[in-house]
Amino acid sequence: FQRFKCVKRRNESGKAKRAGVVGSVCLSGSEDGLKTRPCGNIFFFYLFFNVTLGNRHGLLVPSSTTDQELQHIRNSLPDSVRIQRVEERLSALGNVTTCNDYVALVHPDLDRETEEILADVLKVEVFRQTVADQVLVGSYCVFSNQGGIVHPKTSIDDQDELSSLLQVPLVAGTVNRGSEVIAAGMVVNDWCAFCGLDTTSTELSVIESIFRLNEAQPSTIATNMRDSLIDR
């Protein structure tokens, strides 16, 4: 897989999104491709991305996460990544929040305590926003440290406002041949993206462009991204 910057996989590629940020599925430091790590059995695992949020600084998991699951996740991640249980009324944390390494967008009704924990553990600036009048910002917006894609009905003015908050370029788009639920169909970091199998060549072109994936050469991975790849 390492020879591709944008790869089609199963349609529900986004189900690895939150885990992929911090280690459930992550790139190895070599050119051998993907390194997979088990990351527990939270709600039978397939809901992992719905109930967690993470970046290179930390990972937030639901309060219902057992001690055994927490330890399993801890053993799979670098020591520098903080893990924190969160008691949140809006329990599907991955659907109501989204972030990169610097900024997070959250549901307008997210608990204040959760917002404070999010800012502290993930080391991000938090903004309460909607995307195309949708409160599930984690479902209708995907962004990395390089760029992002938002709901196709997001107005130009809203795109400009969000881009200003996130400090990355944004574009309105779709995945999986027109799906508006962006996060359910793709997972991306600063150098690679995986998209649902139905994603068209036009959609892939937009994804490669906005996330600047063609600029992520092996030399960049070995230098600028080294801290994110190597356990310390």
Fill in the keyword field for this structure.
single chain, 232 residues, alpha/beta, L-arginine/glycine Amidinotransferase, Chain A, 3-stranded mixed beta sheet, 11 helices, globular, disordered N terminus, Eukaryotic translation initiation factor 6, initiation factor
Protein model, in words:
The radius of gyration is 16 Å and the shape is globular. It has 11 helices and 14 strands. Strand 7 and strand 8 (103-106) form a beta hairpin. The longest helix has 11 residues, at 112-122. It has a single domain (6-223), classed as L-arginine/glycine Amidinotransferase, Chain A (5-stranded Propeller), CATH 3.75.10. The model is unreliable at 1-5 and 15-46 (pLDDT under 50). It has helices spanning 17-22, 48-51, 67-76, 93-96, 112-122, 137-140, 156-166, 182-185, 201-210, 218-223, 226-229, and strands at residues 6-9, 25-27, 34-36, 53-54, 58-62, 82-86, 97-99, 103-106, 125-128, 141-143, 148-150, 170-172, 186-188, 193-196. Helices cover 32% and strands 21% of the residues. The protein has 232 residues and is an alpha/beta fold. The chain has a 3-stranded mixed β-sheet with strand order 1-14-13.
Strand content: 15-25%
Sketch the topology as an H/E string, one letter per element.
Answer: EHEEHEEHEHEEHEHEEHEHEEHHH
| CATH fold group | L-arginine/glycine Amidinotransferase, Chain A
Q: What count of helical segments does DSSP give?
A: 11
Assign a percent range to the helix content. Answer: 25-40%
